[in-house]
Write a structure and sequence with these properties.
This protein is mostly helical. It has one domain. The chain contains 3 helices and no strands.
């Protein structure tokens, strides 16, 4: 049985990426927002 992927709004993704670009670590932002760190890294990479 598959575990459903959570859906994140574009605003949520933008906020998370902006925090990383502002100098916060991906690990800290991901932990605070309840994300998998690799997911956040992918979002940052896609935003470049």
């Amino acid at each position: 049985m598959k575990i459903p992927k959570p859906a994140f709004t574009p605003e949520f993704r933008d906020l998370a990426v902006k925090r990383v670009k502002a100098g916060e670590t991906t690990g800290a932002v991901a932990k605070e927002l309840g994300l998998v760190e690799q997911t956040l890294r992918n979002w940052v990479k896609a935003g470049r």
